[in-house]
Structures are given as structure tokens and as C-alpha cells.
Amino acid sequence: MSFLNDSPTSETNTRDRILAAAVKVFSNKGYHDTRVDEIVEESDTSKGAVYFHFPSKQRIFLAIVEEFTGLLEKKLLEAIEHEPDGVRRVNAALQIGLETFGKYRSIAKIFLVQAIGLGQTFEEKRLEILARFAAIIKSYLDQAVSEGDIPPLDTEVAAYAWIGAINEVVIRWVHTGQPEPERVLPTLRTVLLRSIGVSEDHIHELEQEAAR
Amino acid sequence: MSFLNDSPTSETNTRDRILAAAVKVFSNKGYHDTRVDEIVEESDTSKGAVYFHFPSKQRIFLAIVEEFTGLLEKKLLEAIEHEPDGVRRVNAALQIGLETFGKYRSIAKIFLVQAIGLGQTFEEKRLEILARFAAIIKSYLDQAVSEGDIPPLDTEVAAYAWIGAINEVVIRWVHTGQPEPERVLPTLRTVLLRSIGVSEDHIHELEQEAAR
DNA sequence: ACGAGTAGACCGACTGGTCAGTCTGTTATC
DNA sequence: GATAACAGACTGACCAGTCGGTCTACTCGT
Known about the structure:
Two copies of one chain form a homodimer. The model of chain A has no long low-confidence stretch (mean pLDDT 90). Chain A is built from ten helices and no strands. By secondary structure, chain A is mainly α. Helix content of chain A is 75%, strand content 0%. In chain A, 42% of the residues are buried. The first copy, chain A, is elongated, with a radius of gyration of 19 Å. In chain A, helix 1 (14-29) packs across helix 6 (105-114), helix 4 (57-81) packs antiparallel against helix 5 (86-103) and helix 7 packs across helix 8. Chains A and B meet through helix 7, helix 8 and helix 9 of A and helix 7, helix 8 and helix 9 of B. Chain A binds a DNA duplex (30 and 30 nucleotides) through helix 2 and helix 3.
């Protein structure tokens, strides 16, 4: 199901072929510089097929963002529910988030880069999506605070700061390939956990666990 | 000099009237949804005037970004040179950065939001600009490390994480007006200084200084 | 002191290329 | 023979950029 699976361009159904092609083109050229005809060509279908499955170019883009968002959210929640306490949940979320972005690099680029600055409609969508993720993070930060693992703080601002930090580092990587995820993860974990006041001992503990 | 001064739409020269108008329209509608004719109308000039002063729509946009970047960089360096040690410099940079974004809200929106996802040219420009700021931050993080004020860490990743965190929080504010800068600054300061391992005592000290 | 010449700054009607989306088919399957 | 799933030629709106023209201000020779 969905264009998010492993099969690259094989004998999948038309809708998914179109989406896979759209991901490729959008991630390379951005929304506005992508011609629908390029998606048509890349997907080896036809304009008719594209407009049979999607009412507009915009909706193709939104479909990609939404399916990926759904997947990411599902993975995050799955990863989180196996963890006992707030700090560990926050840590798990970070890990699975980076992992998922790493796995779907092109889509990550669409999600984090191309989806910005596209005018009203997209803007609101983006805010809504980020708000959802921020809410997830915030809730576990709150949990960690109430469990006494970290000192009280403005968890909303902290949640957005986290998202921003992750965004920027991933964007950088997506663009330049530069700091590879393996190098990034440890630093980011340390930096982010420190930022909310998790004790150094606790951080070391989590690092040990991650290393096994 | 420049459209960045206080006069809103008065008797400034044509070039600056055009830039001021462009800021207004770009920040509201984004690059692609902005028609050159809208800038013409808003600036109370003419298409001829616009294309007399700028060779293309793109260059108008770049002119805004560049002038603002220049201002921001200048302010940052100014603020920094009066501070003695690395941690204090990093702190000063954060403060002046937020302040400047706060003062030029529309331009901040253009700079942080509308400038993303616009295709090759802009993309590279953005990367270059951010790299410049990241380098500034990194150098003072490195200084703080070598002064022994903070433990060693991957300062490059940390610098980008900082930029991302600030970005996201400011973007949120620019969009929704939500967490006001006054509320954001203390949290962000604490969170960011903690993230690089500045001791709680040292953070409190800086907070005291800021409060006077 | 004055008209002619020149150039910089500006005006705005027009154009020409570009695409998103449409529409009239065609093919396969039930 | 009906319907879903396509194919691809075509169109029409939209808009960045152009281009001939105007309007000062300034210079300079007489």
C-alpha cells in the first residue's frame, strides 16, 4: 500500500507511480518549478491519468505531504508507546524521527523545504501539521516535568525549538548530504536532552542504551 | 538610507518605496503569489519605475533579503564585540537576533519563510546566508569550549540546531503572533544555553544581568 | 538669459511564452 | 454496451517583462 514502500518504479498501480514520480520531481525542483508534464513523463503515464487520479497539481503535493505525515505520526506514536517514562519517550521520538527522515530523504525534502512559502493554503496546512507534532512532543515534555525528571519550563516554546532544531539539521543534510545522520544523532540527542534540563547522568544512561 | 528605516510610505525615493511595497506584498502572499503589478500598485509608482530600478522580480526579492541580511549581520557583530567571553557573546547574539526579527516582522517572514522552497537560485542563497550565521555562532561556541565554559561538542551541528530552533519559534510568532518575543526570549535563552552545557549557575547569572 | 540638446527617471499599454487544466477520444474488462 | 481507466492534443488565462513615449532638470553655446 502507498508509494512509500520499497518498490521504486516497478509494476505498482498508476496512482502510486504518479505519486512516486511527483516526489522525485518535486523534491528536485520544488513545487512551482515542477511542471505537471514532468510528473507525467517521469511516471510513464499520461496527463489524463494524472487528472483522473488527482483534481489538481496542488492536491498531488498535498497527498504526498499527508501520506508521509500520517506515516511519521504513526511511527512516532508506535515508538513512544513502548517507552515507560517521559524522557525516554522524548528520546525515542527523536530517534525514530531522524530515522524516518533518513529513510525517505526526498520526501523529507518536500516536507521540510518545498512545503514552505507556498501561500495561504499550504502555510496553514504546514502550521497545522507542525502543531500536531509539537503537541506530541509537548505532552511528553509535560509528562517528564510532572514526573520530576526535568525542571519546569515553557514546554510549548521548547517543543517548537526542538522541531526547529531537528528541521534545520535535517534540511541541511537533505541538501548537502553533509552531517550524516549517524554523526548528527548523538549530538542532537545530547543537545536536545540537555536543553530541557535532563541531567548529564541520565543522558549518559540513554546513550549507553542506544549504543547497544 | 534603505527601506529599513522608520518612515513607512512617505517621501522616500522611488527605489525604497518599491522595496517597502515589495516587503509588504511578499510577506503577505509569498513570492509566487505576488504579482509585480501588485508591487507597482502598493508602491504608487509604475511598472516602468520598477523595471528601471530592478532587472527582474527575483532581484527585487533578493535585494530585500540581502539588505536585511546585511543589517542583521552588522547588528550581530556589533553586539558581540562588546562582550568579553564566548558564552556571553552567544547570549548577546541570541538577544539581538530575536530583537531584530521582532522589529522587522514582515521582513523576518520573507527571510525565514518566503525565501524557502523557491528553487535552485534561492536555495543556494539561503544555504549560503545561513552558513554565514552558523559560522558566527560556531566560532563563539568554539571559543566557549576552549575557554572551558562548556564541555566539548560538535559545534557545527549545535550551531545549526540553534539556528533552526530560533527560526521555528520566530516563524511561529510571525505567523500567529502567538508566543510573544518577551515570553520567548527567557525560555529560548535557558533552553539554548542549557543545550550546549552551560551550567545552571552561569545561566542564572546571565538572566540576572539581562533583567536589569 | 534662453532655446536646443541630452539624459536620467518614470509611465503604462501591450505581447508572447508558458502551463494547468480540459476534452474528445481509445482501450480493456465485466 | 457500459463503465472505469487511461491517452494526449489543445486552449485560454495569466503575467513577467518590453518598448515607445513623456516629463522634468540640467548643460552649454550663443
